[in-house]
Amino acid sequence: MKLITYLSLLLVVLFFTSSVFSQVNVKGWWQSNLYIWENASENQQYDFYQGLQFRVAPQNNPDLYFNTFLRVAYQGDPADWEERIYNLYLNWNINQNYRFRIGRQFLYWGVINGTMDAVQFSGRFLPKLQFHGVIGLDAPFDRALEVRDWDKGNLMGGYLSYQLPGRNSIEVSYFQKQRESELYWQQIGTTILGFLNNRLNYYLRLDYNLLSKDYQTLRGRLTYYIDRWSLSAEYNSQRPRIYEDSFFSIFKVNSHNQIRGSVNYRLNDYDFGVHLLHTVYDVHEVYILFKDNNDLRFVGSVSHRKYGSFGLIAQTGTGGENIGYFANLHYEFLPGLTAKFYNSYYNYERATTNISQDALAFMAGLGYRLKKRLILEGELQQSSNNLYKNDLRGLVRLTYLFNI
Q1: Where are the domains of the chain?
Q2: Measuring CA to CA, which residue among 356, 266, 272 is closest to residue 320?
């Protein structure tokens, strides 16, 4: 049995045996999914997924708790069992300013990004200065119940956030990964964000790759709010995430540049939006916004808080021609009983073939919630495209919410 198995079992035993001295609170959810479909070999396949998320904490000390989310699945042809541990950690909020966490966890602070088996420490040393630090190991790619050796993938990172005057802040972060005593990923990043006034919001970010000696991400966004309107403009230049010891590092790594504009309007329970996205691929300079290999995408949508959304999409350029619509609707016609409906249609051309093709997707389902604890859902899914003339699938999901 692996180290992480011993650790998880030990933590659970400790928390439950502590009920001898004080009461313990356990809350979370249990979800079972059965997915029925026909694979490419025309064999009927029944995939089963079981998910469990729970948190255990003494009622007299909620700042100390054990948290986990795991999933087991029976799938494939022939079918086999597999398990994945997405998070499993012990958390201790020492006081209002400091927190300690150990175990598997997903972190996203500036350039720090990923699932890791690590020790995390967070604190607010000054009223306006917040710090996060992490040291540990990369989690296995398949999220298996195991811990890597230190030499096969260790990591370290830090994050600082300082509150500037007004509603503004500056963030600085550092992250490195090491394998066999060699650095294969090392980044530093900085972000400035906030409001120039009550109506104008801004966001500026630069991530720099210290190993390739070039930028990794350059992003800027301005959003203006006036009454029910919001107008936004964004620029993004992004390079692929390729590690220094990867085989793909022998190739020239180019970035893509994007400019995005959007207008949104809110009227009572309705939201109307128009978005334009222009992407330029395989460029070296951050200022090139027009090139032969680029595409332009238009999305118009209307949504209602109670009933769902409907939208139109049009695209042209390197990816070919594409036009279509999508509808994602839901309605509670009886207390606790909700009907769901999804439909999309796209007519598109591949850039290399110039042949018009159609893609249609449809979903209809029902969901029933009993006393805020039990949720039963069923869906019928159907799609049709150039490869599958009629692909019909079914999904049954049972979710139980518990708080013991």
Answers
A1: 94-195
A2: 356
Per-residue pLDDT at 75: 87
The pTM assigned to this predicted structure is: 0.86
**44-58 and 308-317: which strand pairing?**
unpaired
pLDDT in the model for residue 13: 53
Angstrom CA distances, 374 to 115, 400, 401, stand at: 30, 5, 6
Q: Tens digits of per-residue pLDDT, 324-366?
A: 999 999 999 899 999 999 999 998 776 666 677 888 999 999 9
DSSP state of 355: -
Whether 46 and 393 have beta carbons less than 8 Å apart is answered as no
Phi then psi for residue 388, to 5 deg, are -125, 115
**189: burial class by Cβ within 10 Å (0-12, 13-18, 19+)?**
buried
Nearest alpha-carbon partner for 201 in 221, 216, 223, 232: 223
Cα separation, 76 vs 85, whole angstroms: 19
> What number is the average pLDDT over the span 158-181?
95
Query: What type of residue is 25?
Result: N
